[in-house]
Write a sequence for this structure.
């Protein structure tokens, strides 16, 4: 099925997504306009959406009106921000005042609270165009929606930010908002060839979605410049979560910073990874060394080994924390509408209801230890690096009636649990192709180093040759 | 107007509220029962509610069914907890699956999400009877509901937990749940003669109400035993907020612990306090010293002076933090239904919308400094002590059309802002009467010393003579 999606086979050197920052310079003199930009997005959506299925709702009429207003602002030199007029997709977990918020869950069909999530509020203040709601796996979990990978219709785009990932990859929008608890921003970015930022815990305001302790909201984009610009325009207006200072950094994309040393972390993902993807990352690390960089591994320092060991059961710890935190909320939902909730979610709920507060406290202690071990690695190198996802996106053609549920139809966040536990910023950089599909590389900084990681991602992307590995 | 409420003039030595723990021992042999207990509560409500106006909704039929089920469990020796069968009121900010959640706000009239807040979920698991929703000031702010002080109908019960405070004082229920951001648990407890616990920040799960960083939910009760039991039964089932270990302590009320040294803190409240209330607290502190205790003040140690100074603008800092955190949410509300929101709340929103993320970060830094200064006082004494409220509850007879809005119709949280900023546990103890009205005393521990403060409150209440001071 390789290359059977709208975009065909992926080559990280050739692929060019839809950038806003390259175009917005033409808005002032009228040689291009937000309205014209939007119309091109709508044309792409009309052509690709029947296959990609990235959106659950679209606001074409309101978007056109917003684009016309933005066009007038740019022509008057009164644009509200650098992303004034940028069409953006919003993951359908976040509330929007003009579209329902159904969260990929039958029980929320028709749910329409008529509020803007804090981040949506900030984006509108910046003049961005809230074009539509993107498909999410059910309640941000693992039960998938209909979205397909734009590079191969038989494969998942990843999840739970499935629609945001696919909409950016398919050039429908220059940026879209995702959210991550286990690996729901970085993994689909890796599978779809996007840039993406999972901000430091608390770095970007989650609005009404504050009921889990390790979730974050962040942008997917086709360029690092648009990714950063969206993040900083949000942060400068709404800040971070309650009690957090919020993401800080320059109001324009940070200039590249060359990392001298990177720590390669295996996480739980490396041991079972396919050989082609291993070769791809190892080759990229060799390119980095050939450019004068140094790569440290678990054998090189006791602190790195300690972090690997402290996160050797990150999947179990992270999943247990989040399942427990969602327990009362999901119980309410199942009590209210059992038929409207997937069997996958009910399995998770049953496991959570077998936990005690003491079990949860134990998980929090393991998370605290992982964070201590992570911080202890800070003096050793500029950042950590690993894959964004366990190789190319897996094939997913739907549940088979009568068969056991596939545990991870949107792919396994094995490379994400350890870095999600840390609460640290992660940037996914599209620098690898395996079997004609994107495989992202994840750059991980210490807490609140979001801008620094973006700057180092820029340097790597500009200076290190990407890697293509064919199928076995 | 003194003594014109249902209960007449208040005497801390004579007043006896409605206790559950003293009665539940009779449930096993059938000499009393949860159903009979409930019927007595309903009788009291029928008699007093027309004046007190503590409830916005009552579930009498469901409560009777729940009480019958509890009666059967006790008689079979299968009670779910020590509070099985306890009728409880829930502040109408918290969601309940069988009653609307209108939050004292016209814009939420008819709001009925059909979910149980995490704490309500835990209370039902413990067999408690969710009897009704209690009046809250609008959205937990300062715009008051109709509730009157049970000791004087012309006075406020305090707020924003107005109905929970009044329902317990009026002996309608043995316990009720309140919530505090500035001073909304401790202040009304002080005005109404209740015991109350504002738990350590994050100590008791706030459920869907996670969008401000210094709010807590906690019980009012007529006895310290019931107060603790309600708190620990909740914590043992649902734990704390996401990411927090949650309140811990014994599964029965902790035995009294004698404090040797107490730090008296003035806060912003002392300078403008009425002379009678000053005399009342000073006399109580003298009683403590006569019993062998030691009282430290700001003149006695630089660390205490530093804490007083670090919280000398606690009112401004605390209000700014919360107003900023509510900004996007209140903007959504006003955009949706401007007529359904009070002028008071709109004033707060306007001030919040003039703030920048940098202003907010500055407030967070001041809060962090207050917390550091607070922790620095820990080695000096067993606890801090001050008033729960600035003297007896003020008279409040309603806004006067055409006049400026009274800034604080539910009383001023001047004694609460400093302790709310710390995130530390506070226990209100009813040990003072001024002008025939209750004035609470607030015992403040270091973070997670909730059980220890409850134990010291027990010692003070049992061993130190309460104080009555007449009107000037």
């Amino acid at each position: 099925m390789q290359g059977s999606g709208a975009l065909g086979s992926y080559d990280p050197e050739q692929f060019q997504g839809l950038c806003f920052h390259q175009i917005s310079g033409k808005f002032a003199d009228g040689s291009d306009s937000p309205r014209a930009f939007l119309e091109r997005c709508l044309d792409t959506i009309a052509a690709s959406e029947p296959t990609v299925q990235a959106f659950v709702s679209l606001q074409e009429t309101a978007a056109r009106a917003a684009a016309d207003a933005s066009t007038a602002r740019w022509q008057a030199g009164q644009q509200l921000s650098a992303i004034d007029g940028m069409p953006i997709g919003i993951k359908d977990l976040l509330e929007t005042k003009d579209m329902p918020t159904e969260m990929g869950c039958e029980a929320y069909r028709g749910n329409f609270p008529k509020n803007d999530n804090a981040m949506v509020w900030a984006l509108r203040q910046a003049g961005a165009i809230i074009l539509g709601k993107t498909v999410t796996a059910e309640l941000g979990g693992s039960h998938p929606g209909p979205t397909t990978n734009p590079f191969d219709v038989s494969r998942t785009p990843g999840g739970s930010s499935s629609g945001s990932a696919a909409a950016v990859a398919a050039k429908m929008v220059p940026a879209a908002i995702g959210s991550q608890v286990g690996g729901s921003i970085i993994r689909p970015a890796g599978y779809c060839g996007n840039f993406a930022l999972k901000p430091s815990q608390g770095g970007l305001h989650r609005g009404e979605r504050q009921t889990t302790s390790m979730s974050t909201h962040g942008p997917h984009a086709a360029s690092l410049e648009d990714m950063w610009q969206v993040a900083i325009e949000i942060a400068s207006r709404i800040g971070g979560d309650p009690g957090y200072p919020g993401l800080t950094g320059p109001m324009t994309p940070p200039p590249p910073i060359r990392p001298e040393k990177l720590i390669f972390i295996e996480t739980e993902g490396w041991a079972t990874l396919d050989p082609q993807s291993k070769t791809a990352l190892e080759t990229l690390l060799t390119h980095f060394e050939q450019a004068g960089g140094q790569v440290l591994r678990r054998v090189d320092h006791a602190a790195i080994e300690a972090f690997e060991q402290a996160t050797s059961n990150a999947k179990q710890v992270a999943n247990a924390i989040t399942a427990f935190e969602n327990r009362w909320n999901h119980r309410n939902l199942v009590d209210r509408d059992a038929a409207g909730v997937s069997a996958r979610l009910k399995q998770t709920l049953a496991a959570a209801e077998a936990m005690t507060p003491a079990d949860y406290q134990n998980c929090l202690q393991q998370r605290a230890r992982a964070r201590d071990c992570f911080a202890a690695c800070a003096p050793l190198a500029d950042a950590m690096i690993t894959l964004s996802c366990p190789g190319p996106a897996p094939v997913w053609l739907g549940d088979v009636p009568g068969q056991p549920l596939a545990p991870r139809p949107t792919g396994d966040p094995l490379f994400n649990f350890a870095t999600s536990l840390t609460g640290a910023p992660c940037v996914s950089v599209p620098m690898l192709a395996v079997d004609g599909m994107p495989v992202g590389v994840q750059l991980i900084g210490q807490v609140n180093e979001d801008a620094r990681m973006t700057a180092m991602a820029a340097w790597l992307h500009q200076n290190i040759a990407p890697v293509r590995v064919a199928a076995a």
Notes: The longest helix of chain B spans residues 357-376. Chain B has a mean pLDDT of 96. The radius of gyration of chain B is 21 Å.
